[in-house]
Amino acid sequence: MSATGTCDYQAKDYKSDLKPIWCPGCGDYSVVQGIYRALAAIGRPPHEIAFVSGIGCSSRIPGYTTAYGFNSVHGRSLPIAQGIKLANPDLLVLAAGGDGDGFSIGGGHIAHLIRRNMDITYIVMDNQIYGLTKGQLSPTSQKGRVTCTSRYGSLEEPVNPLLYTLAYGAGFVAQASPTDLAGMASIIEEAIRYPGFAFVNIQSPCVTYGEEAQQIKGLKAIQETLASLGHNPADRLAAMDLAQHYGEKLHLGVFYRNPEPPPTYGDLVKERQALLSKDALPKERILDLFIKK
Amino acid sequence: MNTQGINFFNLSLMDALDLAILVEDEAEERYGEFAAQMDQHRTPDAATFFRYMVENEAKHGRELLARRVQRFGDAPRNVTRAMIFDVEAPDYDAARAFMSPRQAMEAALLSEMKAHAFFAAALPGIKDDEVRALFEELRDEELAHQKLVRAELAKLPKDSGLSDDDFVDEPAAQ
Amino acid sequence: MRKDLVFGMAGSGGDGIVSAGDSLLQAAAAEGYHGVMTKSFGSQIRGGESSCRVRISTDPILNPGGNLDVAVALNWEDFLKFGAELPVSGNTVVIYEAATNIPVDQIPLVGVTPLQVIAVPIAEMAKSTAGTERAKNTVVLGLIAGWFGIGAVAVMKGIRKKLAKKGEELVEANQRAFDAGRAFAMEHPLKVSMNVVASETKGAVKLITDGNDMCGAAAIFAGCQFFGGYPITPSTEIMQFFTDHVWKYGGAVLQAEDEIAGIGAAVGASFAGKKAMTATSGPGLSLKSEMMGLASIAELPLVIVDVQRGGPSTGLPTKTEQSDLFAAAFSAHGDVIRPVLAPTSVADTFRITLEAFNIAEYYQTPVIVLSDQEIASRKETLDPIDTTQFKILNRVRPTGADLQDYKRFKQTENHISPISHPGMLGGTYLASGIEHVESGAPTNSGSVHQRMNDKRTKKFDPLKDRKDLFTVYGNPDAPIAMVAWGSVAGVCREALDMALAEGLNVKLLVPYLLYPVAEGVYNDFFASVQKGLVIEQTHLAQTFKLLRMHIDLPKGLKSLARSGANPFLPGEIVAALHHLLSELQRSHEGKLQPQE
């Protein structure tokens, strides 16, 4: 089965009865809307979707969808998502979380998922702050940022999620924001349709702990669509060049889409399983492997 | 505000009506989301106001839809939601915890002004007379909406000038 | 003539002594003997000291044996590094490399006079027959064939098979080295003949494998289709087994970027509906503890194999210990019951691993298989196991009626809720590490938390009645008792046989289920007990303390505990039992004194 189904689904079919705990005005409200719309456009029935997250405000998101959700532990959405995908490659697997979840405590996992190129879409709601624990410095906080754990300003450079994923060789890297919900929905849709690992960084403002410049008005002031810049998403070096402006500019759209997607890990696994299945001893005779004559 | 792929010059009346319906739909939905957020965060007065806005937008949407059906039946739509964003709907971060009714109304007022600006800005590029007439009507409708909101604002007692932050609890760590 | 012989051989890695042990074990199996082989190494990757112990018997073998019957030292420095792992006694024949230039009456073994000491010019014989000193191990095999009657034909048959691809010349060189060793033995007969009697089961089919491979095979038999893990000694071979075989069964293996990702992927695979496992050793178990807690609260079946080594931290990566018991039972925060099972041998690793999957699936829980370095890496010869005798359980799935109004964590009579998986229409739910109501929706309600903790702990009650996860050996009414698990159980079984033969009234309880503690089973066992020992390889007496935490132990029950890498010998346990008996007799005599 492909990522696309044939049934006709509406955005509301992906919305669960759970009420979000997010603060009013949180950017994540728009992200979940964007996800509903993207899923409706894809049209896979909710029960064929597995949506995994870690811990953090944004990691509550799977519960707000009608998919099979897994709100796991901090930083570990990606390993769990990979296990799901390997166990059942036919599922549409989404992973999501915040910048702390993805680039701090779980930062070690992204590189490896990228090199495995499993067909998983990873959405990071990047708000440059730890919201759930009340406003501490996050891995994407700007240097100098004053928070309750950096009273005199942060001494660290932020992680650049776009450059990071591009540099590791992700086949699909994009950025979206609540300043353009329709654009966000179509970027998420495109990410899901990409056959392989796809990363979408979404600037999702924290209304409670975010700085003024990171709110929607501030984002609008620095946003530019990549399309308007004439960026060619097949050009990885140009994408890396543009990605360097993370934090100063808000570039919306697809930075990079591998024009010739290589086989996914799942494809290779299927191939290997098919090749080796003929060598399988019946399970009840598995111990014959140990016979010494 | 974001309008992608709309060519106002070529816009047909049917497309213009559909677009206007989508704008109302979006606003209705967003106010609905805001009302739910306020309910969830125990801010009932603001929730009540946002629901009032839901009804207004829905009503306007229904009127437009009736006109569209009368004129064009159920001919398939050429325009999509992806072409508009935040025309009349408030920005996502216009919602705030513990919004007072005044703040909620001010957020709505800003949105109505934004919508007015959208239709006003589109007018010079419109070729079709009927479409222009519709857009003028819609622009004026937004003015009427603004009046409606201002009237609600006027009913409110005078603002104390105090900030919520002086009273509410700090956010709770989870 | 002997029915049972224990060989201990040591040299440097380059001497190929472990490879000789392998050949000996295989030859013994071909000749119908039972055999067990353990290996032990220094910390160098290559060229450090290495040793093996091969025990051969006409009867089934319970453990690698105590004092050596035959000690082979290719050099003394290496041999001595193994200390208590290669104990020489007055009944040991010591064979050593003559080139060490140590006279037979001055070998560096303190406080012991072996039965016989023989210096053999092993290196010289290897060089003159095979043209290289590397053939020393083949000379040793020849000596063993000559002196002890094992493998005269089978050893060279095995070597021939192993070297067939490398050409006849190499095979011939080895044959000459082997023959030279054998001839030397013939020319220098032992003072007391130690030939092993011929086995009656010569030619019968035997399996040879170690605990790790057995564990992997059992998992695949159980229907496991996913392994996520990270290399760590001494458990890595389980992952290797999966990479060799699981694909054939439509499954997959993920060598993850770290221990956490390994278990995380297994948790994900289980959520997706497949039987899944991970394997690790001490440090990895520490890293996995958060995920184990997640699997407990999300009620996801999962098998975690912990092959114990010396700890804490890096500890002794190549030596066995039982000190992960507390970590297995208690690691991960919160109120959690996580079943812990322990095999006692390579053979029962099959059943216990399968049982772990069955318990994981039935109870929807992570289960730890607490193996240890000795079981995991020792090789045993086994009689074929009839796998059709074993039942395979699968998690209970929701029925059509359940799916009408599906609640993933529905309260049921046995506290086990039918579990759906992605792809199942009508079964969507939110799995989570956060506390949840029956539907799976998050909650922070204290009363729901209380109810859900009840559900997640009470569901295990029937497990504590599983008497088949315990074995009592010896006289069930005996006043003297032993409790031992894991690889130590095998030593205690042999000690029990020796003690019974000496007329002691004693029994042994071997638990395969370590946690939750089956109070009823222990209380029944301890009813007749006045004196006893809980015998374990942990410095802190973890087993004794775990039992004391749950059970009012008999006053006379004591702990016999020591750190890993210091194996128990059957003889010392028998001595301890004798001591208990004399204490018991004294206390009885005391009671018989007329009271004032």
From TrEMBL, chain A:
Cofactor(s) this protein requires: [4Fe-4S] cluster; Mg(2+); thiamine diphosphate
Pfam families reported in the protein's UniProt record: PFO_beta_C, TPP_enzyme_C
Pyruvate ferredoxin oxidoreductase beta subunit C-terminal domain: residues covered: 220-269
Keywords: Iron, Iron-sulfur, Magnesium, Metal-binding, Oxidoreductase, Thiamine pyrophosphate
Domain of life: Bacteria
Family annotation (Gene3D superfamilies): 3.40.50.970
Location of the Thiamine pyrophosphate enzyme TPP-binding domain: 55-202
Protein name, per record: 2-oxoglutarate ferredoxin oxidoreductase subunit beta
Annotated source species: Geothrix limicola
From TrEMBL, chain B:
Domain of life the protein comes from: Bacteria
CDD domains: Ferritin_like_AB
Location of the Ferritin-like diiron domain: 7-160
One Pfam family linked to the record: Rubrerythrin
This protein's name: Ferritin-like diiron domain-containing protein
Organism: Geothrix limicola
UniProtKB/TrEMBL annotation, chain C:
Residue stretches spanning the membrane: 138-156
Gene3D superfamilies for this protein: 3.40.50.920, 3.40.50.970, Pyruvate-ferredoxin oxidoreductase, PFOR, domain III
Keyword 4Fe-4S among record annotations: no
Protein name: Pyruvate ferredoxin oxidoreductase
Keywords: Membrane, Oxidoreductase, Pyruvate, Transmembrane, Transmembrane helix
Taxonomic path: Bacteria, Pseudomonadati, Acidobacteriota, Holophagae, Holophagales
Name of a matching Pfam family: POR_N
Pyruvate/ketoisovalerate oxidoreductase catalytic domain location: 13-182
Source taxon at top rank: Bacteria
Record domain Pyruvate flavodoxin/ferredoxin oxidoreductase pyrimidine binding: where: 218-445
